[in-house]
Amino acid sequence: MNQEVKKKKNGCLIAVIIVSGIITLVIIVGIIIGISLLKRDMTVEVDFDKQELESAYDKMGMENDNDTPTLNDIFYRKYKASENGHAADMSLSNEEITALFDDMSSRDDYIQNVRFKGTGDGEFEVSFELNNIDEIISEAEQYYPEVDNFTGIIDTVKESLEGAVVYHSGALEYSQENGFEATTAKLKVGILPISEGQQQVIVDSICGLMNRMVEDIDALNINEINITEDGLDFVGTLPDEIDTN
Fold first, then answer.
1. What is the span of the domain harbouring residue 53?
2. Residue 124 · residue 171 · CB < 8 Å
3. What sign does the dihedral 69-72-78-81 (CA atoms) show?
4. Which residues on neighbouring strands pair with residue 184, listed in sequence order?
5. What's the total number of domains in the chain?
6. Is residue 189 within 8 Å of 38, Cβ to Cβ?
7. Where are the alpha helices (DSSP H) in the chain?
8. Is 145 helix (H, G, I), strand (E, B) or coil?
């Protein structure tokens, strides 16, 4: 039982940090102002459809069998990849990347409606919606016991947090020596900014997850990966299959 609780905590850590930070900011700026800032829609605009999803799988040399890992599966390491791989030299468009993320997040518990847009020179914008706020707040109380002291405020902002849009812009680079490394330019819920300290924890957590996947999957090798204004260029090898474990 304790092991399951630990896995759950690891799974929604990013959402927990974001929600905890927002609660703190709402206390500082005031409930009325805070809620109005949370409700601002910061969704990254990317138009895509089912065709982009199929095109992305074709370029990756994989089949879309509706058993690909969700974001939660990646958090919990609930995925398995084939030992056999194939060479890949491809360019995925912003629409194709967004279609992949949207498909993964559509079956996710906490983070949904992911949108991605490369802006060139390794820089990007991404947005997503927070869901199941009650569960996230329960986890936040375990990480940050002081949150329990503001139950009234939490109850007031909870409705505004449900479905709130998180916006992130920054840069991502990869080297075989250091793996994935990222920097953050902006991280906001609505137009309410997350503190720099919490931003760094979130960025480090995401890079840690991606580096762990590279280590876990023998058939995944990255020779070159670059974010462009059109999307993402990749050269390396990919596993023939990757499914939910």
1. 2-244
2. yes
3. positive
4. 170
5. 1
6. yes
7. 2-11, 13-29, 31-38, 50-60, 71-76, 94-105, 133-143, 151-161, 196-216
8. helix
Backbone angles phi, psi at 244, to 5 degrees: -70, 135
pLDDT tens sequence across 103-140: 988 877 778 899 999 999 999 999 998 888 777 667 66
Could you tell me the pTM of the whole model?
0.80
Of 11, 126, 18, the residue nearest 74 (C-alpha): 11
CB atoms closer than 10 angstroms to residue 102: 19
Whole-number Å distance between alpha carbons of 183 and 169: 9
Contact 15, 164 (CB under 8 A): no
Identify the three-state secondary structure at position 42.
coil
- The helix/strand/coil state of 126 is strand
What angle, rounded to 10 degrees, do the helices at 13-29 and 31-38 form?
Answer: 140
